[in-house]
Design goal:
globular, 2 domains, alpha+beta, single chain, seven-stranded antiparallel beta sheet, 28% strand, 7 strands
Length: 181
C-alpha cells in the first residue's frame, strides 16, 4: 500500500507525460528535449511559488530531525532553522528532493544524493519546553535513541499550518510509537 502523502513540491521522478498537455498547448510540436527542459524550468518556478506559499512564521525555531543515508551507513542527526519560518525548510541540499505532509500531519522531506537518501522530519518546540528538555532531546536525536513519544511530547507537527494553505486536514490523533522514517 502506498504511503498517504500530500506533496508540496518534488523534482523526483518528473514525468514528461504528466506535463505534456499543458506544455504542448504553449509550445506546440516542440521536440521532446525542448519539452523536457521546459518541464524542468516550470517545476523549478513552482518551487519558488511553494516557498512563497509557505511563508509562515512560527513563534519558535524549527528542528529538523534527520535520518541520513551516507556512504558509510545510516546516521541520526538534527539541525535547527532559527528563523522559525516554514519556507526555510524548502532548501534543496541534495540532487533530488521531495517535501510532503504525511498522513499523520508531519512535514517531511526525502532527499536523494549520490551516496543515498536522507529523510527529514520538521517540527517546532511546544511552548513551555525548557532549555534542559531541548538539550536532552537533541542528545537523544544525535544518538538515535529518540522515540516517537519523545518527539510528540516536546514538539508540534507543522502539517496543520501547511494544510491551512492548501486545504488539507489531518487527524488530531498522534500515536505514541517509535520514530519512523
Amino acid at each position: 500500500m502506498a504511503e498517504e502523502k500530500h506533496i508540496v513540491w518534488s523534482d523526483i521522478n518528473l514525468d514528461l507525460e504528466d506535463w505534456r498537455d499543458s506544455l504542448t498547448e504553449i509550445y506546440g510540436d516542440a521536440s521532446e528535449d525542448f519539452l523536457y527542459e521546459k518541464m524542468c524550468e516550470s517545476n523549478e518556478m513552482n518551487f519558488y511559488d511553494e516557498r512563497a506559499n509557505l511563508n509562515i512564521q512560527l513563534p519558535r525555531e524549527i528542528i529538523v530531525i534527520a535520518d541520513l543515508g551516507l556512504w558509510n551507513g545510516r546516521f541520526s542527526g538534527y539541525k535547527t532553522i532559527k528563523s522559525g519560518n516554514i519556507r526555510d525548510c524548502l532548501c534543496p541540499e541534495c540532487d533530488y528532493n521531495e517535501w510532503y505532509v504525511d498522513k499523520k500531519g508531519d512535514f517531511r522531506c526525502r532527499a536523494i544524493h549520490h551516496d543515498g537518501t536522507n529523510h527529514y522530519l520538521y517540527r517546532t518546540f511546544k511552548n513551555g519546553v525548557s532549555d534542559y528538555q531541548i538539550e536532552n532531546f537533541k542528545e537523544k536525536l544525535y544518538n538515535g535513541t529518540a522515540t516517537r513519544a519523545d518527539i510528540t511530547r516536546l514538539t508540534h507537527r507543522l502539517g496543520d499550518e501547511i494544510g491551512k494553505v492548501y486545504g488539507w486536514e489531518f487527524s488530531k490523533k498522534q500515536k505514541q510509537e517509535i520514530f519512523e522514517r
